[in-house]
Description:
Bound molecules: fe (ii) ion
Shape: globular
Largest sheet: none
Order of helices and strands: HHHHHHHHHHHHH
Helix content: 55-70%
CATH class: Mainly Alpha
Number of strands: 0
Strand content: under 5%
Amino acid sequence: MSVQSSVSLLTPAGRHKLIEDGFYANYLAYFRKAEDTRRWKLHKDIPWELCKPDVSEDVAIMVEGYFAVESYLPDFVTEAMAMVRRSRGRAWFQANWGYEESKHAMAWETWLVTSGKRTQAQMDEYADYLSEKQWTLPYDTPRRMIVYQMIQERATYLNYHNLAARADKEGDKALATALRIIAVDEIAHHGFFYKGVQLYLTYDTANTLDDIAHVLKSFAMPAANFLWNWNEFEDVVAKAGIYGAREHIRDVQNPILNALGYDNRRDLERAALRMRIAPDSIGPQDIPDWAKEAPDRPAEALVAYAGD
Ligand SMILES: [Fe+2]
Ligand SMILES: [Fe+2]
């Protein structure tokens, strides 16, 4: 009997158990690797004395924007944990993830103040401003959320990876080091979520393809519209070639789709529809919502629809 047919014979409860067992096994492997190879100290591992006060204001605007997005950690942790609390692997992961993410906003604040690009009073004022707003989950099921998290973490990795090259060019070794260390955290987060999506694809293929198609179509970076200079930030990161619609499709979306076995978004959508539509009884009821609707990215989305 092939693996395919044995999976198709499983009950929904049997599939759920295999997915959950997989999540916990993945978390144990993730945690062990993090403990062995990836733990770092904010006060020791970044050479803050090498901050360069004359680095460009564009770089400061980008780091300040990353500080703002990473500042929504309490909402990210609370909302995600409430959704996945019954999944041992995902809940334990979220707890560990919260610790790792907590260092990111602190690193950006430390750089902004140590380099003299912002004062502590300015950072305090911004933190107060950000705390007035509350982030809520962009999707309402654990499976859609893990697809979102998989994409968002890789997009964050790309932002930091690209800005590290810019920091090198401008000669700020402190910022370049911080960006590289934190980029490794972000791509590790992406890896955990990617493996989770693979589990869902293996044991619940049709529904997972539907969810990937839906999330790809509506994806926007978290809390971006909460920045006090959102338009300026979006403009600066796009013009610097750090992250914009083109980079998102080329360096985030397509590598994920290729790794999952699809050429691009259209290819995955065709696969989702093939799984869904029975050849002899095609009707409107067989067409999922994401296939009927025009792209519905929010106006404030970082990534504009690029005809991908
Ligand atoms: Fe982060
Ligand atoms: Fe992350």
